[in-house]
Structures are given as C-alpha cells and as structure tokens.
Amino acid sequence: MSTFKALTIAGSDSGGGAGIQADLKTFQELKVFGMTAITAVTAQNTLGVDAVYPMSLEAIEKQLDAVAADMGTDAVKTGMLFNGEIVELVASKIKKYNWSQIVVDPVMIAKGGAALLQKEAVDAMRRYLLPAATVITPNIPEAEELSGMKIKDVVDMKAAAEILYEYGTKNIIIKGGHGIGDSLTDLLFDGQKFMELESKRLFTKNTHGTGCTFAAAVAASLAKGSSIEEAFQTGKEFVYLAIRKDLHIGKGHGPTNHWAYQESKK
Ligand code: PXL
Q1: Which residues are marked as active site?
Q2: For the domain 5-260, what is the CATH code?
Q3: Statement: residue 1 has pLDDT above 80
Q4: How many other β-carbons are positioned within 10 Å of the β-carbon of residue 76?
C-alpha cells in the first residue's frame, strides 16, 4: 500500500480545534501522513484568541525547504498566513517545488474577530496564491472580501465563484455555513459547471475549526488521488459528522469531533 502525504501551512491553535491541529487530526483520520509548516502560534481556547505570534519568514521558509528537500508531498493545504509577505513566500515555494493539489483556505478572521490575515494581504492572496490553487474554499464572508460582491443566496454564490475563477484558481468551493435558513448549500465551480451539496443546518455553538477541517479533508482526499468532486463530498461529510457529534469541550465555541467520520464507517 502506498503512503500518501499532505503538508499543511497554517497557524497553531493551542485549543486544538482549528489550524494545524485540526489539519493533522483530519489527515490522520483519512489515513494521510501529515507534515507542517507553522506560520504563526496563537494562544487561544474556546472563548477566543488571546495572542498571535507570527513566525519569521526565515522560520517558515526553512520548514518548507526541509519538507521539500527530503519528503515531498502529494497535496498542500494553506490556512492562516497572517501577512502579505508570508502569502508571497508560500506562493513562490509552491511554484519552486512544483507542488500540485493545492488547497487554499483563505482564512481571514477568527470567530471572535481576531485578524488571522492582515487586510492588505488580501490583495497578495488574490495576486499570488489564487493562481497557484487547485481549489480555494472560502466561507461567505471570505468570498465576499475576495470577490468584492455581497452574497445573499446561492445565485450570488455562483456569481462570486465566477469572479474568483477569473483569478486563476482551477476550482472554487464556497461554503454556505454562514448563510441563513434550516438548510445550507455548499457550492463547487470548476470553471464550467456547478455542483451543489445541500444539507440540514446543524444548530450548535461547537463549530470552531470547521473551515480548517473541511479544507484539510479536501486536501487529504486529493492527496489520495480523488477527483475534486469526490474530495468535495468527503469534506462535506467529514465536517457534517464532526459538527453533528460535537464534543462539548470548553465554555465557548468548542471544537468539532474529528473522529466522528471514521466512527460512522465502522
Ligand atoms: O478557523 C480559522 C482559523 C485558522 N487557523 C487558526 C485559527 C483559526 C480560528 O480561530 O486559530 C490558527
């Protein structure tokens, strides 16, 4: 059996629900060997982010070079990149090492409002990272910021996906979790056709790290050779179950349940 590998380039969440920690847990559950390049260390729990400590560009570069020099990877997932210089560095390394299967989760703001990407870095993301991406996975507020348009419904989500496609990303997945109503639609656009996955909306406060977890599941699936449609379905199912079987940890927005997906397969 061959071993598939994925590299996450993201921030560390001391609370274990989002960021690097969510990515590694998700890779592990999907039987993909996880590697990391940490862009920032956050001090946080389910109540919020207390502090953010970005790593130096040199430290990030050394991590990426070390993984590339010896191990290589079948997929890359990017999460919290914090500033424009880090965005540019990551885009240049993806190109240099000819990495493919690139999942860009354009993380911008934590639930409590802490900035995980500086405002001026959004432009760098559009310019450098989107053209390198196999798929980007914004939620509705992130898709609004990147596309420059307001999104109220699925028709708007489709229009925003078409705008984002023009930035050179091969596939766009806009997640509908920030919408309203009892059901929600996640949307995939590959430049030609749309695929919609609908589900019941789950009402719980324990949704910390859902975006990271979704993108990590997509990256793990692509690492294993799945099509983008299959990866989209796996990501959706993984996160749906992780929210439905939530763990009730901490007093605020708790983490999701990363082992629910595998338990459902037993
Ligand atoms: O879910 C977005 C996110 C990504 N990365 C890190 C985070 C968060 C949200 O809090 O802390 C490190």
Answers
A1: 175, 207, 209-212
A2: 3.40.1190.20
A3: no
A4: 29
